[in-house]
Amino acid sequence: MLADRRMLAVYTTEMDVDECLIGLVARFDRQAMGLDLVGTSGLMRNEQETFRWADIVRLDFGGRYEEALELSVRHHP
Q1: Which residues pair with 28 in a beta bridge?
Q2: 1.20.120, 3.40.1000, 2.30.30, 2.40.30: which CATH number matches 2-75?
């Protein structure tokens, strides 16, 4: 359910230092986590990306940008 998920910005070893993917947590387990991706317009992209924990270098959440996107997604499912 959308109301139970948090918006995350994920930075990996494969990305430039200022590049990230943003989405709602879809799943996670011991090896990886999956995000339902959100575009910069605040609309869901109908894409899911899986990230291995070993490849993640940074996770951001609760910032103004993530919160604004989260509100937009909740109002435009």
Answers
A1: 33
A2: 2.30.30
